[in-house]
Each structure stands twice: as C-alpha cells, then as structure tokens.
Design goal:
The chain has 344 residues and is of the alpha/beta class. Helices cover 45% and strands 15% of the residues. It has nine helices and twelve strands. The strands form four sheets. The protein has a five-stranded parallel β-sheet, with helices on both faces. Helix 4 crosses helix 9, helix 5 packs parallel to helix 6 and helix 6 packs across helix 7.
Length: 344
Amino acid sequence: MPRSDYQSNMVNVSRTLYVLFVSAIALVWFNQNSLATWWQLTYHNACPWSQLSMRSWSAGETLMQASLSAKNAFIETFNSESIEETGIMEPVPSWPQLHATLPLVLAGKGSPTPAPANNPAASSEAARVATITQNQSVLFIGDSMMEGVAPHAMKMLNDRYQVHGINLSKRSTGLAYPSAFNWPKAVKTALNKPDNVGAMVVFLGPNDPWSMPAEQRGKWLTFKSPAWEESYRNRIRSIIDEAKQHNVAVIWVSPPNMRRSDLNSGMEYLRTLYASEAETAHCIYLSGNSILGYNDTQYDDYREVNGRRIRLRSGDGTHFTPQGQIMIAESILASLQVVIHENK
C-alpha cells in the first residue's frame, strides 16, 4: 500500500474516532441526569461525573430540560387544538352491575357518612378498614409489585362496588431515589386532581434497601444509618401527610420476605419503618408476610391452600404469580368498606 494511502486511511480513522468520542461526550452532557439516575439505581453509588460542578457542564442538563419542556408544550398545544376542532372527548367507561361480596354499607338519605379510616375515632375497626363512598376512587401507588397487584384490585373494585381505581404504579421506583421518580411529589400531584380519591394503597420497597444520595450534592447516606433512616421516614411521612390533608385513607402494604438473603434482610428492616409510621399516623397496615402465610424470615414459593400447594411467587423470588397477586388484592379489598347512598 502506498504511504500516501496509508496516511489518508489513518486520517479518516482518526476523524471517525474523534466524531464518535465527541458524540459520546455530547450524549452524556445532554443526558447527564438520566444517566446519573441509571448509575445510582444500578450501582447504588455516585456516578463518575457527579463531582463536576462547572457551569458549562451543568448547562447540558438545563438545555435538555428546556428542550423537553418545549416538546411537551408543543404536544399539549397540538392535542388541545385537536380536541377543540373535533369536539371528541374520551368516552366514559360503562360500569357493570354491582355484585358486592365484601364489606358494604347502605346509607339512606340523610344518613351520616362514616368518617375516613385514617381518623382513629372513626370506629373500633379504624385500624383495619377504610371507609369510602361509591363515588370516590382508590389510588394505587408503588413499584413493579403494585404493577401486578393493582389491575386485579381495580377489577374487583369495579365488578363488586362500581368503584373506580387509579393505577399510578411504576416499576423500578421507591422512596430512596427521588431523582429517578419522586413518589411524594407524584402523590401530591395526583391528589390535587379532581378524581375524588377516598383511599390510597401503597406497595413498594425492594428497590430501596441500599445507600442513597443525600440532599447535599455528592454526599451519600449509608443504608440503615440514622441519617438514612430519618430521611426515609420523612418520605414515608410526606406521603401519608399529603393524603391526610386531602382526607384520604391510607392502606400501606408491606413487602413480604424475599428469596435473596440480602434483599430479605433489607425488607425486614424496611417493614419496621413502614409499620411504625403507619401506626403513628393511624393508617391501615397490611403485612405482606401475613397475607402470604410467612413466619419470621421464612421464604417459600408455595403455600398450601385447601390441601393443595399453590405457587405464589415468581421465578425471581421477588414478585408474584397471578395467584399471589390476587391474594394480595383480596386482602386490600377486605380493608375497604364502601358506602352506597340510597335516595329514599
């Protein structure tokens, strides 16, 4: 090969590598927040570029947020114009006939509506039953565990009570990494909407038993440390307090035992936080272990029901089979009491 051709090829290769390198840096610059969140969720420590504080570096995230805001504004404007031109709105779902099989109260005209379950003076059942009216909805929040349970619970609410459910569950979320998804903020946004939410069900945990970022940039809180616990408890309280401000009863479902020993140990600790905060706030606390029939730190994929061994847990040892999801959903519905008003 002539020397000139060799040099020309090397120049072309160098240019290609340079373009690839600059493109990679630009992608990280624009998507630094999303990539930092992915790094935190995957490795549970600060990303390599977290210490960069130059204005030129942070401008990348600012530029990305501005472009996303512009995109959302454009889509919102386009959708609004389409609705105005066509006059077509979303159809209202037709609810099936009521076939109630769980706690149901018929309230005649003028009868008082029972107080919400988050009021300790509501009744002697306040620790385990949330009272809502038929025209109220039930909000479901949580991680991938709730993604499996919520659809079953919502169908039961629909079929039995004609009560509407709202499913906000989102996988790979929790309370430890608000930069990935901020549940207190999401709850506040949801409860400020005109959906007439009467009860909220919370089911999360397995994404949280790790060190988490502190509010101070670049600092991390070690799992189970006093600072970690205080920060995590504050996030639990913020969700419950937001619900209380809207007179919404809270049903907090604790994660059951897990197959992985380190994750199982983490769930054992987190359950103590959920239980104590729920008790302090007079919320309804449902033990995942009690629902699935576990004792202490025992884990089993199966449970014996009527002489048959039924598989309740999925292959990963964290999530649930449809039978397990239905069992949890039934326990949630057993903690709800629906008031039907009759005009007489």
